[in-house]
Amino acid sequence: MQKYKTYLAGYAFLLPWLIGFLALTLGPIIASMYLSFTQYDLLTAPKWVGLDNYKTMFNDDFRLEDSVKVTFKYVLLSVPLKLAFALLLAIMLNQGLRMLHFYRTIYYIPSLLGGSVAISVLWKQVFDQEGIFNRMLAIFGIEGPAWISNPHYSIYSLIGLSIWQFGSVMIIFLAGLKQIPQELYEAATVDGAGIMRKFARITMPLLTPVIFFNLTITLIQSFQTFTKAFVISGGTGGPINSTLLYSLYLYMKGFTFMEMGYASAMAWLLLAIIAAFTGVLFLTSRFWVFYSDGGK
Amino acid sequence: MTLMRKIKPYALHLIIMGVGILMLYPVLWMISSSFKPTNQIFTQSGLWPSSFTFEHYHDGWFGLRNVEFGRFFLNSFLLCLVAVLGTVVSSSMAAFAFARIEFPLRKLWFALMLGTFMLPGHVTLIPQYTIFHEIGWVDTFLPLTVPKFFADAFYVFLMVQFIRGIPKELDESAAIDGCGWFTLYFKIILPLATPALMTAAIFTFMATWDDFFGQLIYLSDIKKFTVPLGLRLFLDSTGNSNWGAVFAMSVLSVVPSLIVYFMGQKYFTEGIATTGLKG
């Protein structure tokens, strides 16, 4: 009797999550899979079209091709650079400096604000042809291009904005660096190891789990970037699809053109791409991620 | 060598400070521009305005026809308040169940919850929208608030980790004293889990305040617009004609995030370090 009361209590507390999981996650996942094989505009019933959406995606949708290319470029440039900056600054901050708290606060502010519309608005202005970025370059005698309205450069303004937000990644690195036992460095110093050697043989190996973690999280988030691209391009992904990040194109397909079946199929392709990238990370991790407790 | 040692901290401070200023420069420039007369915004790169004006704040606040920015702030605050309440209550309930109560299929549900962690929201987006469309919730606050009462996997996980760290003996002595599950949850576990609850509350506030995508697809009546939507509308309608006012409203729009950040900084750093939230 007592046992069943406990079971009941368990499910009572779990109920809100359980309802949400079934109605807003599991159900929609299944429905989304179904919708991806249909033509659906929200107002009329979905019409089964078999693999048509997927065939169009892979063969006929040149905008999607552009979008995937732009997204890859964005992810493959911004993620490594963001992590590199974060790690570099974290190492500098970890040298036992005073005012660590202050610096951490300063560096976190871009991460805090970066997702807001306000910062995208600002970015649009900073990287304008006449913007302050070009005016700074002018001081060094460099004539900068129109970073936002020139299709060759527009993606770099988005990449720059993403790198600018390295603060949250840096804080995780900083926490990881603090975990490395100081004695290891002392022992290495006694053995005559220099800074570079200590970095390569102690810091890097012991930090690989944190690098792995940051890489995975940042990668997944980057593939889903939306607000920056939407605000900076005025909702178009332009000029000439040069800032048409995947999420933005998916939004346009689903909510501007009301091709919701196609948008669902696009969501599954995105999931497949993200799964492939994280899958590779996980599979290769045993070759490069070092767990000091010998793995869990 | 000793000279190097003496110089090193100063050099480091110099670099770190320099990079920091460079990073914050655009934000500072935006703040200062919002106080500069229009003709000075793009001619002066300096941060201190040579003459102050509050005109942009007035122009921006009343810049849209039929609706003031105050309305957007009110809507955003309302959404955040309900979202925070819903998330903290429902997530802590689920976390309590996972961490403290033995019941059938517990491990399965927990595994399924972790499985949804990395799932991009895009996959559930269209069906969710369809559901809310069918029940007539589109263009109301309901699709943005009601789901928050069904717990968020991230915060459940965060809280489970935290609650597991609270000694189990407390549960036993509470049971001996005749406390039921609800009393244990409400009177003992919740107060002790305050740091985790605070972290969840702060992150939920931030995420809701900046949730441009959700608000964009669900809200279309300008009277229901939130700050991000209002700002974007203002940018589109004012365009390049009044950057001062756009900047002024942009500055106001980030003030709540900054206040919450500085108030809850302790929880912030902990939260990021343990969950990797916020990119």
TrEMBL record, chain B:
InterPro entries reported for this sequence: MetI-like, MetI-like_sf
Domain spans labelled ABC transmembrane type-1: 73-264
Cellular component GO terms held in the UniProt record: plasma membrane
One example of a Gene Ontology biological process annotation: transmembrane transport
Location of the protein in the cell: Cell membrane
Source superkingdom: Bacteria
Alphabetized UniProt keyword annotations: Cell membrane, Membrane, Transmembrane, Transmembrane helix, Transport
PROSITE patterns: ABC_TM1
Bilayer topology annotation: Multi-pass membrane protein
Gene3D superfamilies in UniProt: MetI-like
UniProt-listed SUPFAM superfamilies: MetI-like
Transmembrane segments: 12-31, 72-96, 108-129, 149-167, 188-209, 243-263
Family: Belongs to the binding-protein-dependent transport system permease family.
Protein name: Carbohydrate ABC transporter permease
